[in-house]
Amino acid sequence: MRASDRAYASLLDEIQSGRLAPGAVLGEVEQAARLGVSRTPLREALGRLAADGLVVQQSPRVTVVSDVDAGDIRELFEVRRALEETAARLASERGDAAAFAQLAREFSAATVDGVAATDDYYAVIARFDAELDSAVANDYLTSALRTVRTHLVRVRRLARDNPGRLAASVAEHRLIAAAIAARDADLAAHATHVHLHNALASILDSVADAPAGVATGAAASVHHEQGAA
Hints:
69% of the residues lie in helices and 4% in strands. It is mostly helical and 229 residues long. A hairpin with a 2-residue loop joins strand 1 (55-59) and strand 2.
């Protein structure tokens, strides 16, 4: 792996996990030394993160982790709704019905009672997302979804500490998977719409309760990047 790719991956993980909080200053000299790379690959990594919208350059020498506020989250979900509802419709037409039926069964059996069970549920979500991308078979759409998911990792974590929302998400994912398996595009899109509506409401409630200016700080200590959103 190239030094710039290694630096990018490390910084991305730290931003998404909350270890590098919004507003954290990423000094070139300090970060290069900490990550064990020279300043040239570090600049390349910071450039990629800036293109992702995860950092902003306040001056030629000062780069900081971007903030996430309620307005950002609403805008992100506007894009997410358009992409994921379309993806659900396409997957209903193009996807492997048996694969989605199996995922629906796994969601039916999933629980969020305890850390291990919750981690298993997140693993099913990851497989669902991968199957959805494969079913869509549209590089433009899946590329856009990957960009959205890069940002979602930061805000999804806000829902993890809400057991009721997490349990509801299990049922919502089961319905989406079952609708896709049944080739019911309208139901799949509608179920996705309801899921995203509920996820957004939960995250905005979490942001409202979080300290001012730290939308992602409510769960910064949580390592896992998946969530009920």
